[in-house]
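Much of what follows relies on a compact textual record of a protein's fold. A complete example follows; check for yourself that the lines match position by position.
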Amino acid sequence: MNTVSSHFRYTLSELQALLNKFGKRHFDRDGTNPILYFNVLMLSLQFELAIEFLLQHEVYFSDAIHFAIALAYYGLINIVDIDSITSGPSYILFLEFQPQIDYNRLVLDFARSLPESMKIDTVHYLFLLNLQTLYTATSSDEINVLKQKQLCIDMLVKTLYDFRDYSLFLGDVMRDGTKQKGFLDKYAELLGIDSEEKAVRAVTKRLADKSRDEGRLSDSVMLYNLSGNYNTVLSVLAKQLGNELFSKIHGKVELQAQSSMLDNGAASKARFNRRKSQRQSNIGVASGTEPNEAQEILGLVLDHYANSESIASKLDPKNVDTCQTLLVLLDFANEYISSYYEQALATIAKSNLFPIGYLILAYQHNIAPQSDGMNISVGNGGDGGSVDALEAANIAENLRDIDESILKSFPDILLATMDTIAKLYTGYKSSPFNDYRQAGSSDGKTANGYSSGAGSNKQPSMVLLKKMSKNMVIFAGMCQFRMPPDVFAKLNRIDTFIN
């Protein structure tokens, strides 16, 4: 058997060292043909150095990227660890004299350089961050494989969030409830998640969370709905509406409540007449009474969900009740702040938060008390002359489970309701007319913007308002959650003023 003399043995590393000794100047003296030296490095299997050399020439930047991608696909280049990041013009690191390419930064920089008109191409390049051949199949690389997958999803979420073209990439839900697939549905398997549907839902959920946190309300609602998180849609809208309700009503009640007790009859009469005149000339309606974005979206969402049996069956009734109550309370707040007290009283009855619903019903229909001026048989058939303690206790008990979006505004709503009662009572008391709600109105509208029923004298309405006031005070004492201590003092002052 012939043996080769050690003198004639020539290794690949020795060939690479020799070529590197000659350097690029030897192969391209005037710098006009960089491809030649690139080929030399490629043919000598110095792939990382070849890519780094080509990247130094801007005209070949795109070629260098695609060579790196192809080599990475076949597992022929060493890449920088995901936790290590290069900076500056160089995309290469040396670890124990072995070159490594910062593949992730290379792909991300190229994807970011693409114009907005190439959205789909940008996402295609992001999928390349999750090439299965970037790491070996050894157990030591399992963590890096997971990190690489997470990086791919993170960058995909960030890019789609910036593009904001969700129907293109994520699809849409049709009117009949069917899902129209988007771009991501076709290529979801490239994310390395168990199923395409699971992958798309995961990305959509991430986008929805990010939109929610960044204040993109309409986007977050659309995305949660698209991902099938219908209860989350309601929770997001409830939180938003709860914040808006608190912002609208908090701090607005105290001045109103104080004025209701300090006004004398003449001032109250003048104030109500002035508001009546303003409304007749379309002046003085608060600008905030128009439904805002969140209210409009929630109204549409609730209607859509109610008409879809498949969705309605998945909803938590508590979430639905919370949203419906918030819509009522926002209407009440708008009407109260705009001094539409008749309408505000009718609206608050719809919330079922206070044990005065049957009294408001009697008030609206001008149901007069019996001859003793105390007993009213209406609503629940009970004795209207005394506080319905059982109803008050039941409502107070139910409030223990009330959503935080309502709870934080509850003291203000309580005071606003009490103040509404006081304002109406003051109006009746100071009015020289027999029926305050019809006084001076030729079109059936009242000074408070509410159309009254059959004519009656003002005494029954004042009695009913007194009963409402008393019920509110006793109910407040039954509430189990903490309220500011001054709330009870204010309620008692108003009740004393009325009764």
